[in-house]
Amino acid sequence: MQCKLCKRESEDDRLCRYHSDAKKALRKGYVTWNDALSSISWKEYLNRVKTAQGTGQWVAEVIAMEETGDSA
Amino acid sequence: MKASGYTLILCEKPDAARKVADALAEGRASTVKINGVEVIEFDRGGVDYVVCSAAGHLYGVSDSFSGRDSFPVFDLEWYPAGLVDKKLGGAQRRIALIGNLAKNAKHFINACDYDAEGETIGENVMRYACGGVQGSALRARFSTLTSEDIIASFDEAKARVGQGLADAGRTRHVLDFIWGINLSRALSTAVNSSSPGYKTISMGRVQGPTLAFVVQRETEIRGFVPTPYWIVSGLFEKGGMNFTASSAIGRFSKRTDAEAVRNACQGQEGVVSELTKTVFKEPPPPPFNTGDLQREAYSAFAYSPSKTLQLAERLYLDALISYPRTSSQKLPPSIGYRRILSGLARTSEYEAHAKELLSEPLSPRQGEKNDKAHPAIYPTGDLPRRSLPLYEKRVFDLIVRRFLACFGSDAIRERTDLKIDVNGNEFRVSGRSTLRLGWLKYYGKYESRYERGAPKLLKGDLVKVIRVDCEEKLEQPLPRYNLGSLLDRMEKEGIGTKATRAETISTLGARGYITGDPISATELGISVFEVMEEYCPKIVSVELTRETEKELDEVEDGKRDGADVIARAISELYGEIEHLKSGENKVGGELGQAATARIAQESIGRCPVCKTGTLVVIRSRKTKKRFVGCSNYENGCRASAPLPQRGWIKPAARPCSTCGWPVIYVRRGRYPWKLCVNISCETKVGRKNAVQTLQKRV
Question: What ipTM does the predicted assembly reach?
Answer without folding.
Answer: 0.96
